Structures are given as structure tokens and as C-alpha cells.
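User: Please fill in residues for this 183-position structure.
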């Protein structure tokens, strides 16, 4: 019989058993990587953030009280790592902008044909909307779990999910007709 996440977590807390934590990593790494990739739209960065998430989770495993699911607790850590990374990137981008002032930016070529890319659609959402939409639809989390993971109030999560879903529907509706998308 397979041990539950709660049993493995208790074993890790009590004994710092690396094999038990390794099993938790194996169970949840695809979910964490997928969530982070959808949020940051960069495979390499998502892998780095996932690694940071699991390191942080091992360090903080004693703070897991079992009141929520291990998955939502882990996604909360992943979301925090994503936010820290985003703040660092924004700071670095501001510095780079000072040096690129004379360089003319060109628009990236658009995809040809009727192919619509979900990642491109998700990129049109605000950061908070994208985070909770990915958690709820891609990772299968409930609104309550997403609220727990992000630290946002449940009503705010529901609003972000509804707005994000409406924007995605509009994006895909416009993409089907070939019209310019403005969300």
C-alpha cells in the first residue's frame, strides 16, 4: 500500500527522511513544473523555480500543519518563488531599459494559419489572473486551494478566475475569426 502525502510528510518532519521527501517530489514535480511554466512562460526558468520550490519545501517542511492539502502548501511555495523571481526580473528589466533606450524594438512575427497557442493566450492575462487560472484549470486546484496557495482571499481568486476565463474566451473567439485580439 502506498503512503499518503500526510504520512510521508510526517516521516520527513520526524526523521528528515530524504527517501520520503524524494517520493513527495516525484509525486508533485510535474504539477509544480507545469504550473510554473504556465506562469513564467519559460521552461528553463520554470525548472529552476521548481528546484528552488522543493529546496524551500524541504527546509520549511516543519511548517506544514496538515490543515490543507500538501499540494496547495507546495503550490504556495512555488507561487512565492515565482513572485520573488518576477520582482527580480522586473528590477533587472528596468536597468536594461536604461541601456536599450536607443535600440528600436521590432514586433515578433505572428503565427501563421489558425494555430492558437494557449501560452500566448495566457500571456495576455494579468499576472494574478494567470496564476490562479493556471492553478485552477491546469493544476486541478479548487478555488479554495488556489486562495490558500496564493494568500489571496477566496473572493479575489474567484474574481481573477472569472475575469481570466472571460479574457481567454474572448482571445480564442477573436483568434477563430482572425480579428485582432485586444483583452
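Assistant: Residues filled in for all 183 positions:
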Amino acid at each position: 500500500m502506498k503512503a499518503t502525502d500526510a504520512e510521508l510528510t510526517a516521516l520527513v518532519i520526524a526523521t528528515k527522511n530524504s527517501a520520503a521527501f524524494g517520493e513527495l517530489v516525484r509525486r508533485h514535480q510535474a504539477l509544480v513544473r507545469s504550473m510554473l511554466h504556465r506562469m513564467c512562460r519559460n521552461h528553463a526558468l520554470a525548472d529552476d523555480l521548481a528546484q528552488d520550490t522543493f529546496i524551500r519545501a524541504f527546509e520549511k517542511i516543519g511548517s506544514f500543519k496538515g490543515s490543507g492539502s500538501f499540494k496547495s502548501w507546495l503550490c504556495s511555495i512555488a507561487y512565492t518563488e515565482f513572485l520573488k523571481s518576477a520582482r527580480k526580473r522586473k528590477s533587472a528589466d528596468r536597468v536594461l531599459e536604461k541601456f536599450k533606450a536607443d535600440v528600436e524594438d521590432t514586433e515578433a512575427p505572428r503565427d501563421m494559419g489558425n494555430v492558437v497557442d494557449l501560452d500566448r493566450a495566457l500571456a495576455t492575462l494579468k499576472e494574478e489572473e494567470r496564476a490562479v487560472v493556471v492553478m485552477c484549470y491546469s493544476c486541478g486546484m479548487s478555488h479554495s486551494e488556489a486562495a490558500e496557495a496564493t494568500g489571496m482571499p477566496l473572493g479575489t481568486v474567484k474574481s481573477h478566475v472569472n475575469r481570466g476565463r472571460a479574457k481567454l474566451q474572448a482571445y480564442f473567439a477573436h483568434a477563430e475569426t482572425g480579428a485582432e485580439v485586444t483583452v
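For context: Residues 116-183 form a domain with the Arc Repressor Mutant, subunit A fold (CATH 1.10.10.10).
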